[in-house]
Design brief:
By secondary structure, the protein is of the alpha+beta class. It has a single domain, classed as Glutaredoxin, CATH 3.40.30. A 7-stranded mixed β-sheet has the order 2-1-5-4-3-8-9. It is globular and about 50 Å long.
Length: about 220
């Protein structure tokens, strides 16, 4: 199978090796390697733990509450960094194509979440996404889950220059590590997968395998 995230990220890396300056490549690789080196799965929320009540904001600013998401069963949240993130723009359309049709038939919400507020208005149109998009204001849920990070290297920002804090609206460098979170109807974590390397994320099939077969079969 060639239409996989792994293959897509390999193609992106190959393109960057052709187009990017050596120092840019080294900086990108060093940042990713540092995050992988620091990653400890014990630092974030674990499967089986209860999830505190939370509220996300939809594209139109409408509140999306935890209990509404899990009213009929589990919910799947895909944390991405921000709307312009190249690696996120590879992952989200694949998750949408592979997961949304199956999950929607089973009445399982699929929500892509980032701290960017408001949600990047071009993201849905760019890929024709059908999943829900939501903001996690101030990384509140991401911080509670323990999946956020702040890069060690923070370049100087000239007045008026765009930077992560201005793009997300948080005013900080903090971003969520790409994460797949499945919350059961009882508000406990069924599954969590955190990707410290943002170019190494779970394939859609691995996510679907964490949904109870009976839930999927009942909607078939």
């Amino acid at each position: 199978m060639t239409d996989t995230l792994k293959a897509a990220y390999a193609a992106l890396q190959a393109q960057r090796e052709r187009d990017w300056a050596p120092e840019q490549l080294r900086a990108n690789a060093a940042t990713r390697a540092a995050l992988v080196g620091k990653y400890d799965p014990r630092d974030h929320a674990q499967a089986g733990e209860p999830v505190d009540d939370f509220t996300l904001l939809g594209e139109d600013g409408t509140p999306i509450r935890r209990d509404d998401l899990i009213a009929h069963g589990p919910a799947v949240l895909i944390f991405y960094r921000f709307g312009g993130c190249p690696a996120c723009n590879i992952a989200l359309p694949r998750y949408d194509r592979a997961l949304f049709p199956v999950l929607s038939r089973a009445r399982i919400p699929l929500v892509a979440v980032s701290p960017q507020a408001p949600v990047d208005p071009e993201l849905r149109a760019r890929h024709g996404l059908k999943l829900r998009l939501a903001s996690d204001p101030g990384n509140a849920l991401g911080d509670w889950l323990g999946i956020t990070f702040e890069p060690d290297e923070k370049p100087a920002i000239a007045p008026g220059q765009s930077w992560i804090g201005s793009i997300t609206g948080t005013g900080t460098w903090v971003l969520p590590q790409p994460t797949v979170l499945i919350i059961d109807r009882d508000a406990h974590i069924r599954f969590i997968a955190v990707s410290p390397d943002w170019m190494d994320r779970p394939e859609p099939e691995a996510i679907l395998s964490q949904i109870p077969e009976a839930t999927i079969a009942a909607a078939a």
